[in-house]
Specification:
By secondary structure, the protein is mainly α. It contains 6 helices and no strands.
Length: about 150
């Protein structure tokens, strides 16, 4: 493992710990999805994802091949957001802040979408890609999310 492999996770952790976020919707299970988000949010989020995120993260949030390997510029390709990579390890506030502020503060290349998408739209995008997660992955994420809210 190269020492640079630790930079992104450490910066992400530090950023998540230092920032207070308003991205904390009610986590009560919705009757239509059994998750924090509604089916309307998923539908809206999938449309927003297709228009803004799919070009890099893939139509079904599957990302690109070899996403763990840096490119010729030393950047990692966009990771999958479908539950097969690390997105489920991060609290909702961190996911939202990366969408809002972009990946640059953490050494990534993702552009910020905070001036293009509202908070509700960002939450819908997250609902859209979380809808690809199986129940086991979602429950692991939910546990992390609840812990993150108790540590503030």
């Amino acid at each position: 493992m190269k020492s640079t492999d630790l930079i992104f996770p450490l910066l992400l952790l530090l950023t998540a710990c230092q920032q207070q976020s308003s991205f904390q919707p009610d986590l009560t299970e919705r009757a239509d999805t059994g998750r924090w988000y509604s089916s309307e949010q998923v539908e809206s989020g999938k449309k927003l994802f297709a228009a803004n995120c799919a070009i890099c993260h893939g139509a079904n949030a599957q990302a690109t091949p070899n996403w763990k390997t840096t490119d010729s510029n030393g950047n990692f390709p966009p990771p999958p957001l479908n539950g097969s990579a690390h997105a489920w390890h991060h609290p909702l506030a961190t996911l939202a802040e990366v969408i809002e502020g972009g990946g640059q503060p953490m050494g990534g290349i993702m552009p910020p979408f905070g001036k293009k998408l509202t908070e509700d739209q960002i939450l819908a995008v997250i609902a859209g890609f979380q809808s690809h997660w199986d129940q086991v992955t979602y429950q692991k994420w939910l546990s992390i999310e609840k812990q993150s809210r108790h540590s503030e």
